[in-house]
Structure formats: C-alpha cells, structure tokens
Amino acid sequence: MIQEKGTISIHTENIFPIIKKFLYSDNEIFLRELVSNAVDATQKIKRLASLGEFNGTLGDLKVQVSVDKEAKTITISDMGIGMTAEEIKKYINQVAFSGATEFMEQFREAKDANEIIGKFGLGFYSAFMVADKVEINTLSYREGASAARWICDGSTSFEISEGDRTNRGTDIILHINPESEEFLEEYRLREILKKYGQFLPVPIQFGMRTERTPDGEDEEGKPKFIETEVPDIINNTSPIWTKAPSDLTDEDYLNFYRELYPFSEEPLFWIHLNVDYPFTLTGVLYFPKVKNELELQRNKIKLFSRQVFITDEVKDIVPEFLMLLHGVIDSPDIPLNVSRSFLQADGNVKKINNYITKKVADKLSELFKADRKSFEEKWKDVNLFVKYGMISDEKFYDKAKEFALLENVHQQYFTLPEYTDKVKAEQTDKSGKVIWLYSNDPARQHTYITQAEKRSYDVLTMNGPLDNHFIAQLEQKLENTALKRVDSDVLDKLIEKDVKIECVLSEEQSASVKTLFEQTIANGTMNVQVEGLSPDEMPVTVTMDEFMRRMKDMSKMGGGMMGFYGSLPDNYKVSVNGNHKLIKRILDTDDQEVKARLAKQAFDLALLSQGMLSGADLTAFVERSVSLID
In which family does this protein belong, per the annotation (predicted)? Predict the structure, then answer.
C-alpha cells in the first residue's frame, strides 16, 4: 500500500535530466557508485557494532550483485545500516544531501570515523543513466524500524510504501532501459566490477562459481574431486597497500604486481607509500623495466579512494617524470568532482606530488648507497626515470645529482662529480672549460672514439631518447662544462689547447687543395676547409656543427621551435688535414685524374666513418678501393 507520494526536492525541473545523462563521463560508473554506497553502508554497521551502538548479529557482511536478464534488472544488495522511510526522504529525495555529515557529527568522537563516510545523493542518481525505473527496498538497523520501499521512474516524482525486506540492509533494483541492455550481460558486469571493485574492503559477490576439492583416489588410483558451488567473490579485500611494510615479504609485493599486471616483466624494485599527516596517502609504486625505449603508456598507476578505483589518469598527483611507473595510490584527501572521475588540483594534490617525488629520490639514493654495483646493473632500466626527473623537476635534480650515473663507451659508470674529476686533467680546454665528449652511436662513431682515446680522452655513451635534453640540462647546471659529440668536429677544435698546430701548406697550396675537393665533392651542403691538424688525424673529416646537430636531433622528438631546425637542410663541414701525408701526395701528383681519385677516396672514407656512404656511392668506393690496391 502506497504511504506517500511526492516530488524530489531539487531547485529546477531541468536538473534531473542533466544528472541522469551528463553528470558522468561514462555510464558504467553507475555500478561503481551503487556498489560503493553498499560498501559504505556495510562499513558503517561494522563501525556501529564496534562502538556498541549496534548489538545485533552482523551476519555475512558482503555486497551481492545479481542480474536477471529476463526481467531486465540488476540488483545490488547489502546488509549494511539500511534506511527508514524518513531517511530515504532525507538522503535520497533531497538530491546531493549526504548522510555522511550527520553520521560524522553523531559519532565525531570515534577514532577513524572518516573511514565510514558514505555518500548518497548524486552518486545514487547515476542509476538513472542506465535504468528507467529504480527501486529501493530497505530495512534500517534501528530497533523497531519498518521496511520501506521507494520507487522512481526517472522523473521528479517518487512514491514510498511499505517494503518487504525482513533483514537489515538495502536492495537497489535497477530496471534497465533499452539503450543500456549491454549491462544485462554477465561478462560486462563482471568486467566493471573487476575494474572498480577489485580491492574494495568488503567482499563483493557476483553469482556462484564451481570449486573443485580433492576427495581421495578412485579404484585406478587417480585423484578424485568434489565439485561444489561457492559464492564467487570478485575482490581482494586486503590489498598489500593497506598493510604495514614490516608485515610484507618481497614475494608479497611481486605477487601483487602480477595480480595488477599479469603479462608484464617483474619490476626492478618498489616503494611503499604510507603517510597520515598532513594528508593521508598509501600505495605501492613499482619501477618497471623500461630500457631505452620511452614507453608512452601513462595509464599504469591506478588511483583509489578508500580502495574504490577512481581513475588511471593521475597526472596531477604523480610527477610527470614518474608517469611511467606502475602501481597504486590510495588517498581520501584527493579532491574529486561529483563523479569521482577527475582530479582537481589543490594544495593537497601538490603536497602529495612533492611527497611522491621525495620518496622516489630517497629510495634511489638508498639503493645507490647500499649497493652501488647492483644500482649500476639497474641503471639501464632506471636512467630514463632519473634523467626525466632531473630535466623536469628542480628539487629532484638536486637530490639525483648525487646518484645519477654516466656511462662511458667501456661500460664504466661515474657520478657527475666523479666524471669531472676523471677527465678534467686531459679534457680542459684553453679557456678552462671541461669538455665531456660523448657518442650517441659508439659502433658507427668508432673511428672518432679511437682517435679521441689516442689522446687519452674519455668518451661517454649518450644514446637514450632523452639524452639531448639531458645534455642541455647538464650544461646549464654544471660549472665550466660543455658536452660535445665526438664526431661533431676535429679533435683539435673539440678541445682547443694553447698549442696551435700550423698548417705546412702555403696559401697557394691550401687554395689548390680546397678547389680540388670542392670540384670532386660537387655538393653545396659540404663546406670545405683546409686546416692545420695533427698528422695523426684523418686526412678528411666530415662533421656537423654541434649546435645545429643537437637542434636537429631534438626536432625529431617534435614540438615547439625545434621543428624549425628540423626543416633546415643538413650542412656539413669538410675538414681537409693539410698536415696529413695523403694531402702532400695529392699535391705532388701531376696526373689530374689520380688527384681526383685520391681526393674522392679520402672524402668517401670520411663519409664512411660517419655512416653516410651508401648505395651507388658505396659500391663505387669499394670498386675504387680494389683498383687502388691492385
């Protein structure tokens, strides 16, 4: 029998369709909201029992989700605190009024009372995104309470009548509309429940499953099993981030990682987050193996609020350079909009961001100091995170400069201060600047590396996707230090010393050699210069200016003004070593054809050393080489 009819208390008739259709970015959110409400109600009854405010039997405290495809209904049931008819009117009919405020006021002296805040109101109304009628059948935990039923067809009208529920708790019954019948498929509901409820703190049952248990052996000695139907609990109510690190083993962390990312390689290490002031934050962040490929999958960290999955878009909480980490973070202090789907940057978010940055830096520093050899072995996997952090975060740079490593072409590792100490004696130029030489392709630039090592110079390997930006950062931060690619000029120009090597050629001879090479090369992008270099240097060297080459490399990563440099034509400097014996031989030869062949051979050797000789030019070079040694 209907006891009351009325109109839902909202400010305008136009709000309801907005709530129904546009409040949430994805209509699957309805299940998260309703299951979360059921979990909240369940936690409340547990808390009331612990406070002595409820003395009845708690029973099997779980949330059940069921679907009736024929009746086109989805039901979410709990054994929580339930509601009276008056509470329905207060918490459901007055849209956006939350029972949490009153509940908190009533039990404000209770320890950890924040844990039991539940939201009715707008979260509940997400049901109308998929249902054209919603029923509430509920019985309050309060002594002498009567069951109540609330029905609404998606308009602002509702009716309340006596309910038929005989045990404490609430059933929410959704009558699914024709446009949302995908949610009547069990696989779809299970998918959503696993996504949002995988770690809810109350067991979530979705149907039954068959469990096989051993039952001895048959007459042939083969094992027998008994098959029984048991509740299918889809969630882990005690994930590791809710536990104390001292109670966990490495295997616990690894098992949890496998649970989150079943097809990933095992992580390098992890950080357990646990802070309760000035904000509350728990979680576990894992360092995956990334190598030198900048994997742009930035949805590997999952954000939870009291174990309810919110989003995997955490860019405001986790520093940009750590978006490649995996794991979970859980905080009730992160502000969410009404759909709990998007973060709003505020003071707490900034504090959390800074805290995570500090924890990561402290962990890396701890690993470096505890076992440097092991840290060096992990460097190829973690250097991407560290370099990205140093480039993008000033505070992280200040911490990381003590443990960030440089690797030379012989796979030796140095901290930034160590490397300066190693090379400053030999690689300080005449102006007092320390020059760090590096290679981005040691195999291809082997000739240049060998020439540098003959002078007792050291060469770093800088071939990561961020190294162009990292190099620029180091030059900005390190005093009197410049980094130059080992093949970006002749060595005497890369590290200029006080001693100047004079060219043995006369001005007339230099002009003759320059003309010969220009005619032989016949390429406007090649700028020929005859220079006085060490006789041990190559007869001809082809290089691109360090600045221009660096800008072009950065342009390949895209964005901003760098694209301008990428559009410019490649220009190279051809340095002809006037002190090399081959150049003297060319000058001493009267046969113009031989001169041209020798010049071309020397030039092609320079191209070959840069990996710039290919196709028909390479074939001609090989044939010419054979003819020269016949």
Answer: Belongs to the heat shock protein 90 family.
